[in-house]
Design brief:
The complex is a heterodimer of chains A (166) and B (295).
Chain A: H1 9-31, H2 34-51, H3 58-77, H4 89-97, H5 100-110, H6 114-124, H7 130-137, H8 141-159
Helix pairs in contact in A: 1-2, 1-3, 2-3, 3-7, 5-8, 6-8, 7-8
Chain B: H1 3-12, H2 17-56, H3 71-76, E1 79-80, H4 81-84, H5 88-92, E2 116-136, E3 143-164, E4 171-176, E5 189-196, E6 209-212, E7 221-223, E8 231-234, E9 237-241, E10 253-256, E11 272-275, H6 277-290
The chains are: A mainly alpha (166), B alpha+beta (295).
């Protein structure tokens, strides 16, 4: 996709189609409630459309979208009405469809503290490299690595295994 | 985790078509509104100037627009939060709210835990301090850190007892560990569902934190759900957040919140409702009956 300095309706739909699933998954992994993930999803795309920002590259656009998603999620899970543990229908469906061990792992990852959850999720579930995560979260690559290392240790503690290795 | 499982996650967790359409519409219409608002404001200004000129023009000096407002127009008038609730009392309140991070959403079924539901005027608002010991081993094994925690103490005169073992006219002390949304002010009237929290204060029993010294509560009563705006009695009726689903009827009116709300309260900005005394009494009684809570 070429750089789109102006956001016409047509281009908007094209970009939305490309990144919608990923934005929704990231939102869900961070807020864990379907209704909140939908709120974040809508807010991200409204901000994107209104901002009419010019991106240097497609990667810049993608990173911007993820960064805004993470910020919107933070707003939700720092808010009063955020619930700590809700097993929504989505999670039940995921529980049915995933092998037990993989569901436990996904559940453990999305329950990690924010600083570990974001890099671990983006790395293992969305396939981003450490450098890409560093660009998205505006953190040093070394910090990302150390957060991932600590996150994996936490997961090992929770799951009593060593499933994760870089 | 293998690739298959990641594919399953991707296939399961994705936005549905309705959400996509709603989002597209919302994004595009918001943008369109932004474009038209200045034009709209300009048009309104022109109309106002024209009307003002007509009314104050040389041929109409004796004309004063005193046409009576019809009842329908009066009813259609927007209900403003600032007009329903006296704001001065709130500004005088010097209490900071607690930090609240993770709470479950409100449900009317929480009322099942009520020890009493009372309605009345706030007579006083104060605080009580407790000593908290945190045990941690960050710097040394068995290390301890002593801090203070506060509770909010309200005295309320029970003008009406919806349910519970409290006498009408009695002054009830309520002690809550988490502060209200929109902190209560002396002189304002609320309907408060109360729960029995016991005689001693509890604090993170499961963790490495406990209270020390005097842990006797000032009152066994606490607010059942202090994380949202409480039901408030005003001159025009009862003001409540829409999370009280049973209270919302065809006669319920929307209230425009025209005051600055704290971040935590923003969620309620478009959710405040007003019921007349009759509608509120009918609906709230029905709800209490449904939960077997009437006296």
């Amino acid at each position: 996709m070429k750089i789109q300095p102006l956001r016409t309706d047509g281009c908007f739909e094209e970009v939305m189609e490309k990144y919608s699933d990923m934005i929704y998954r990231i939102a869900y992994a961070n807020v864990r409630v379907k209704a909140d993930a939908e709120d974040v999803f809508q807010e991200v795309w409204c901000r994107y459309y209104q901002k009419n920002k010019t991106f240097e590259s497609e990667e810049h656009r993608r990173n911007w979208l993820i960064n805004v998603t993470l910020k919107c999620c933070k707003k939700i899970y720092s808010s009063v009405r955020y619930k700590r543990t809700i097993l929504t229908d989505d999670m039940s469906l995921l529980k049915e469809r995933l092998p037990e061990r993989d569901f436990e792992l996904y559940d453990a990852v999305i329950r990690l503290p924010e600083k570990y959850r974001i890099p671990i999720y983006l790395y293992y579930y969305e396939g981003f490299s450490v450098n890409e995560i560093s660009d998205i979260t505006k953190t040093n690559p070394s910090t990302v690595r150390s957060q991932m290392k600590r996150g994996r240790e936490k997961l090992k503690e929770i799951l009593k295994g060593d499933e994760f290795s870089e | 985790m293998n690739k298959e499982s990641i594919e399953i996650i991707r296939d399961t967790l994705k936005p549905d078509a309705v959400l996509l359409e709603k989002t597209k519409f919302k994004a595009v219409s918001t943008k369109k509104m932004n474009i038209h608002i200045p034009a709209l404001i300009a048009a309104c200004l022109i109309v106002i100037i024209c009307v003002a000129f007509t009314v104050t023009g040389p041929d109409s000096t004796d004309f004063i627009p005193t046409a009576p407002v019809s009842e329908t127009e009066a009813e259609a008038k927007e209900l403003l939060y600032s007009e329903l609730v006296p704001q001065g009392s709130l500004k005088e309140n010097k209490f900071d709210r607690n930090v609240i991070l993770s709470v479950a959403p409100f449900s009317e079924t929480y009322l099942k835990d009520s020890a009493a539901v009372i309605e009345g005027e706030i007579l006083s608002v104060g605080k009580k301090e407790y000593t908290v010991i945190y045990e941690f081993d960050k710097f040394e094994k068995g290390g301890r850190l002593t801090q203070k925690t506060e509770t909010l103490i309200i005295e309320i005169r029970a003008d009406k007892v919806w349910c519970g073992d409290i006498k009408e006219g009695e002054t009830v002390t309520v002690e809550t560990e988490m502060y209200f949304m929109m902190l209560p002010a002396v002189g304002r009237k609320y309907v408060l569902p109360l729960c029995d929290e016991g005689k001693e204060i509890k604090f993170d029993e499961a963790g490495q934190t406990y209270l020390s010294g005097n842990i006797k509560r000032e009152s066994i009563y606490s607010i059942i759900y202090p994380f949202q705006m409480q039901i408030e009695k005003t001159e025009k009726g009862y003001l409540f957040p829409a999370t009280w689903k049973s209270l919302v009827t065809a006669d319920t009116k929307d209230v425009t919140v025209d005051i600055n709300l704290a971040d935590e309260e923003q969620y309620y900005a478009d959710k405040m409702k007003l019921n007349s005394k009759e509608v509120f009494t009918e609906q709230f009684t029905k709800l209490l009956n449904k939960l077997n809570l009437t006296n």
